[in-house]
Design goal:
This protein has 234 residues and is mostly helical. It is built from 14 helices and no strands.
Length: 234
């Protein structure tokens, strides 16, 4: 009885969630470095899979884990603001490509919302699931707020955001290279619109220009999705 009570206290403690998340991510990052930065071993991809498996094996409810790791979710905001520095350094390039940036953000946001919502409906998903899928290309805090306001599920929206980000970080550079897109601005914009923060971190690995444009696209995409999503979904 004492062990059960102790385990319940430990498993629901915020310290457990933080230690689990930081520890597994640290190990995943070391594995990624030793593999020569293999895209299939991206730290976030490996860490998300391992943490999910641990939660299932230990029988820990995701909402309990998410509440415990809430401080990390909160830090996404300051981390996003910090992207303003490389963007400032690329200000001259941004001014030259202002129209391209706006066009890519608007088209990408609209397509992401429509594809996410109607693809889920077409495959037989529920209305709540479709509404949780729609804001997948915005950042986690925005997607959570939008999903709840529209009638979706915030935890499920986070899952879709993670999937979109990880898929873009792993396969995005390959797809862009296969499509012979070499302009660093275009590559950064594509990563930022489709894969938000995770894609932006991957874009920074290619160069500061790619990272700066990806960070700009990520911020503008979150704003654009927030404005147009009520007009595009029932």
């Amino acid at each position: 009885m004492r062990f059960a009570e102790t385990w319940e206290w430990v498993s629901t403690s915020p310290l457990f969630a933080l230690t689990l998340t930081v520890g597994i991510y640290w190990a995943a990052d070391k594995l990624w470095e030793r593999s020569g930065r293999n895209p299939l071993l991206t730290p976030l991809l490996v860490a998300a899979g391992v943490i999910g498996a641990v939660l299932v094996l230990l029988g820990i409810d995701y909402t309990v884990y998410a509440d415990g790791a809430g401080v990390l979710t909160f830090l996404l905001g300051p981390a996003t603001v910090a992207l303003a520095l490389p963007l400032y350094r690329q200000a001259s390039h941004v001014k030259e490509a202002a129209l391209m940036v706006l066009g890519v953000v608007v088209v990408g946001s609209v397509f992401s919302i429509l594809a996410g919502y109607w693809l889920t409906v077409w495959l037989g998903g529920s209305e709540e699931l479709a509404l949780s899928m729609a804001p997948k290309s915005s950042t986690t805090p925005i997607a959570m707020a939008l999903a709840e306001s529209l009638g979706g599920w915030a935890p499920v929206a986070v899952l879709f955001v993670m999937i979109a980000g990880l898929a873009g970080a792993v396969f995005g550079p390959w797809i862009l290279t296969a499509a012979r897109i070499t302009d660093p601005r275009a590559r950064g914009l594509a990563m930022g619109v489709a894969s938000h923060g995770i894609g932006t971190s991957r874009a920074f690995q290619e160069g500061e220009t790619q990272g700066a444009f990806s960070g700009l696209a990520m911020g503008l995409t979150g704003l654009c999705i927030s404005l147009v999503i009520p007009l595009l979904v029932p």
